[in-house]
Amino acid sequence: MSRGSNTGVGLTFSGSTKRTQKFLDDLASGRTVLDGIEALAQQGVNALSSATPVASGQTAASWSYEIERGKGAIRISWINTHVVNGVNIAVILQYGHGTGTGGYVAGRDYINPAIKPIMDKIADEVWKKVTSS
Questions:
Q1: Are the C-beta atoms of residues 26 and 32 closer than 8 Å to each other?
Q2: How far apart are CA 51 and CA 117, in angstroms?
Q3: Residue range of the domain that includes 81
Q4: What angle is formed at CA 47 by the lines to CA 42 and CA 49, rounded to 5 degrees?
Q5: Does this model's pTM top 0.85?
Q6: Residue 31 contacts by C-beta under 8 Å, 6 or more apart in sequence?
Q7: Tally of structural domains, the chain
Q8: Which residues, at least 6 apart from 133, have a Cβ–Cβ distance to it below 8 Å?
Q9: Structural domain contains residue 131
Q10: Is residue 65 included in any domain, yes or no?
């Protein structure tokens, strides 16, 4: 009885793993693909402030941001703190509201157009950092 040879399975590749190694090294050292996220979050505040309909200017001046970093995730929350009688004014400007006399004031979509370019920038920055050498 003869035994066959054990050829096993081989794996070959060509090219460089430089980008992958740099990305992994950055993650291991605590750096992330969004180290500059604070500047982008502030750009969002500026865009929202500029786009907010102005009567007194208080709603436009009440934008801020919070950044939460978790395992494998970063969350930016843009917040408006202008509240009158328990009602967030930025929200009723966006979505509309009833009046005390039975009327309705239509909302104006100002948040989405203002924040979209910032979200696009964030996506571009992440892509650049992930694919850079």
A1: yes
A2: 13
A3: 20-126
A4: 95
A5: no
A6: none
A7: 1
A8: 18, 19, 22
A9: no
A10: yes
Confidence of residue 78 (pLDDT cuts 50, 70, 90): very high
**CA 17 – CA 49 distance, rounded (Å):** 44
Chain-centroid distance, C-alpha 31: 17
Domain-located, residue 13: no
Nearest CA-CA partner of 40 in 126, 130, 118, 101: 118
Reported as a single tens digit per residue, the pLDDT across 24-70 is: 666 655 566 567 889 999 999 999 999 999 888 999 999 999 998 87
Mean per-residue pLDDT, 84-89: 95
Contact 68, 54 (CB under 8 A): no
pLDDT tens digits, 88-107: 999 999 999 999 899 999 99
Reduce the DSSP state of residue 83 to 3 states and report it: strand
d(CA 10, CA 18): 22
pLDDT for 5 equals: 57
The number of beta carbons lying within 10 Å of the beta carbon of residue 23 is 16
Helix (H) or strand (E) holding 60: none
As beta bridge partners, residue 74 has 69
Question: Does 64 reside within a domain?
Answer: yes
